[in-house]
Write a sequence for this structure.
């Protein structure tokens, strides 16, 4: 509201002014057609402010003339007529062509007076501008710009906007293209009248990068029937690959237009170093640098030669291996010596003796392996060695010394030479030894490369003569059981007596022991010899094994002991009888002891003979008054077998007991009965120890051990005796057991009669 006028905003027809001085009869007083959609109106003073949604704020001056006359044309000087058009100075027009128009208006006041014409130039532009571009039609290979040209014949271009791909919108008419790809440029322009052009698009394609082609040719030489080289391509710049150019083995270039999924390959099936050149051109025209693929085929193994000398060498030498391969070339050479470990290399030094076997082969760069080859490398730096089989000692028959030459791992023995006893040099490997003596042999050998061995020496000893046994002793009769048997030894063949081989045996028995031996004699102890003649045999060998022997005889005369348990010339009469059988070879000489005391036999000896001497066929009968004791021992000190007994006379009883030979002493004796109980009986057991050490004993009667007592002490000193009696004892059998050899008898008296019985030794 402003005064009595109501200003109304109408969306589609603009602003209307109503005079509401008479509210009951409102009257249209004026109008204004807004260019767009009217959203509201505000009045201040003589101005109305119209809000146009599309074009913005419209400021309209409102006056209050009575009437107006106006016209719109394209003549700048037209004067409207005086016919009133309306009471507001304006009107709405539509459908007018773009261009410059003039609005002419005159006002009439309330008195009817017309004023001069007023003219308003009006520019009409309802057509959007048109924008064009100069983007090139195809792919470009260098940075470029796209220029946008806006044309608007009416109001003229106000601005141009663009964006590249989905980037931000920006104002301008020059679009720089400096990144690779198929870019989409969106653009439009706006004219001065505000007309906005519909968005347009154009493609700007930039590919600055050459395409890339690759191949799968093997990196090196291969051992294959054929090699196929496949080519693959790509174009990072974006335009895409177009034509692949090839030059096969230098035969000339030709091109292939490539398509998606196409396979391009080249196959080579002959040996050699093959090439194919290639490059790619993309759709933008970028050209790849020429590349070369190599397909190298080698199916032939290399050949290796060795420069080993053909024969034996005397000094260290080198063997070189030379590999040749006309295609891929040699990659490695391996060898081994005498089946040892394989090594890589082309040269080796031979420094040890022997016929060495060198195995070798090479491998080329394509992997072809040569068949193993073999060559001999023969080195002999060492002189041969000759040995002999000469025996260490003497030989007893002619023999041959064999000389054996060995050259180890070398060239082999060519010749062996020797000299016997500094005689002339001979050739051969056998040296005959046929004469006695100690021979010297010098010898050496020569091998096949001329090495001469240092001279060696050997000894060969031959003894053909048997050794001799001399001066065998004893000879003739000798007294006693212990003697030394000896002999002298001699060897005339040169080897000398083998002292350890010398033996002495008696009577064809085993060799004696404990002998003392030398290279000139042997002596052996012989003890416990029996009486009578003995044959001596001496055997010996020399150091060559020749055997000799000799011998002799001698006679041994031995002393013999005879025993009784008791002598009694106190309570009875007692004689010892010592006889020498007739026909004996010589006299016997006796000694006699009682209780260990030697008795004097001189008073009883034969006239003209030595004390105790009993000629053959005679008996000596000594009797010692008032002597009682035991044991009794009669000794035939000059050997020979004697007849010895003891006679005892008691009352009317005469008892004769033979002497017991020392070889028949025992430690266990028996009788059938013991009687110390029957009327008139007295019974003694007599036990004599004739040895050199004490003995223990026990007496059993009917199996019962008799108790130890003063008369039966259980031990007998050396040379002593006991005479135990057991009162009131009658039983049998009677047994005496001792810890060593003893002499045992039993004496019995009965009513003046006397009897002595020797103990029985059970077999």
């Amino acid at each position: 509201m402003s005064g009595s006028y109501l200003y109304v905003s109408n969306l589609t027809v603009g602003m209307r002014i109503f005079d509401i001085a008479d509210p009951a009869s409102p009257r249209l007083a004026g109008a204004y057609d807004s260019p767009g959609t009217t959203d509201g109106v505000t009045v201040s003073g003589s101005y109305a402010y119209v809000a146009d949604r599309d074009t913005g704020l419209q400021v309209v001056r409102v006056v209050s003339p009575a009437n107006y006359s106006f016209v719109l044309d394209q003549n700048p000087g037209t004067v409207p007529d005086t016919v009133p058009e309306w009471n507001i100075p304006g009107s709405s027009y539509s459908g007018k062509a773009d261009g410059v128009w003039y609005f002419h208006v005159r006002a009439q006041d309330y008195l009817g007076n017309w004023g001069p014409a007023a003219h308003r130039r009006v520019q009409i532009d309802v057509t959007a501008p048109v924008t064009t571009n100069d983007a090139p039609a195809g792919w470009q290979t260098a940075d470029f710009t796209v220029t946008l040209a806006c044309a608007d014949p009416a109001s003229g271009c106000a601005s141009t906007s663009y964006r590249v791909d989905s980037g931000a919108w920006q104002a301008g008419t020059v679009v720089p293209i400096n990144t690779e790809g198929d870019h989409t440029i969106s653009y439009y322009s706006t004219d001065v009248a505000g007309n906005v052009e519909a968005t347009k698009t154009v493609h700007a394609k930039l590919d600055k990068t050459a395409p890339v082609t690759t191949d799968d040719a093997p990196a090196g030489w291969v051992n294959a029937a054929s090699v196929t080289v496949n080519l693959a391509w790509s174009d990072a710049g974006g335009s895409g690959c177009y034509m692949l150019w090839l030059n096969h083995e230098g035969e000339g270039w030709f091109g292939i237009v490539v398509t998606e999924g196409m396979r391009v390959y080249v196959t080579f099936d002959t040996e050699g170093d093959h090439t194919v050149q290639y490059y790619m051109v993309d759709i933008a025209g970028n050209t790849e640098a020429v590349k070369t693929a190599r397909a190298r085929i080698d199916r032939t193994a290399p050949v290796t030669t060795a420069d080993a000398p053909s024969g034996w060498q005397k000094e260290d030498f080198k063997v070189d291996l030379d590999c040749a391969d006309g295609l891929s070339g040699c990659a490695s050479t391996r060898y081994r010596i005498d089946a040892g470990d394989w090594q890589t290399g082309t040269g080796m030094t031979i420094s040890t003796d022997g016929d060495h076997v060198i195995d070798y082969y090479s491998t080329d760069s394509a992997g072809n392996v040569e068949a193993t080859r073999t060559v001999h490398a023969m080195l002999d730096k060492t002189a041969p060695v000759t040995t002999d089989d000469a025996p260490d000692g003497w030989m007893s028959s002619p023999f041959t010394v064999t000389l054996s030459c060995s050259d180890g791992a070398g060239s082999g023995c060519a010749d062996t030479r020797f000299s016997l006893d500094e005689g002339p040099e001979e050739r051969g490997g056998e040296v005959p030894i046929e004469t006695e003596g100690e021979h010297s042999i010098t010898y050496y050998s020569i091998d096949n490369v001329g090495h001469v061995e240092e001279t060696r020496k050997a000894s060969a000893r031959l003894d053909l003569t048997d050794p001799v046994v001399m001066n065998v002793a004893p000879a003739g009769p000798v007294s006693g059981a212990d003697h030394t048997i000896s002999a002298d030894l001699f060897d005339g063949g040169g080897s000398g007596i083998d002292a350890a081989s010398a033996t002495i045996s008696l009577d064809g028995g085993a060799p004696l022991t404990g002998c003392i031996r030398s290279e000139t004699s042997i002596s052996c102890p012989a003890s416990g010899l029996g009486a009578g003649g003995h044959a001596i045999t001496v055997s010996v060998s020399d150091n060559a094994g020749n055997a000799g022997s000799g011998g002799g005889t001698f006679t041994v005369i031995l002393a013999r002991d005879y025993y009784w348990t008791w002598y009694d010339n106190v309570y009875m009469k007692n004689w010892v009888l010592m006889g020498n059988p007739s026909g004996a070879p010589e006299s016997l000489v006796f000694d006699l002891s009682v209780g260990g005391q030697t008795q004097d036999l001189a008073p009883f000896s034969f006239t003209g003979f030595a004390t105790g001497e009993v000629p053959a066929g005679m008996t000596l009968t000594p009797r010692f008054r008032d002597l009682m004791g035991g044991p009794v021992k009669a000794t035939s000190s000059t050997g020979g077998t004697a007849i010895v007994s003891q006679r005892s006379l008691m009352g009317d009883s005469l008892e004769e007991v033979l002497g017991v030979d020392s070889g028949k002493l025992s430690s266990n004796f028996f009788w059938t009965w013991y009687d110390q109980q029957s009327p008139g009986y007295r019974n003694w057991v007599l036990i004599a120890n004739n040895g050199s050490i004490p003995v223990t004993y026990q007496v059993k009667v009917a199996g019962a051990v008799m108790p130890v007592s003063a008369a039966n002490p259980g031990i007998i000193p050396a040379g002593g005796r006991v005479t135990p009696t057991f009162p009131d004892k009658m039983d049998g059998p009677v047994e005496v057991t001792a810890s060593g050899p003893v002499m045992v008898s039993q004496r019995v008296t009965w009513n003046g009669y006397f009897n002595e019985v020797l103990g029985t030794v059970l077999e």
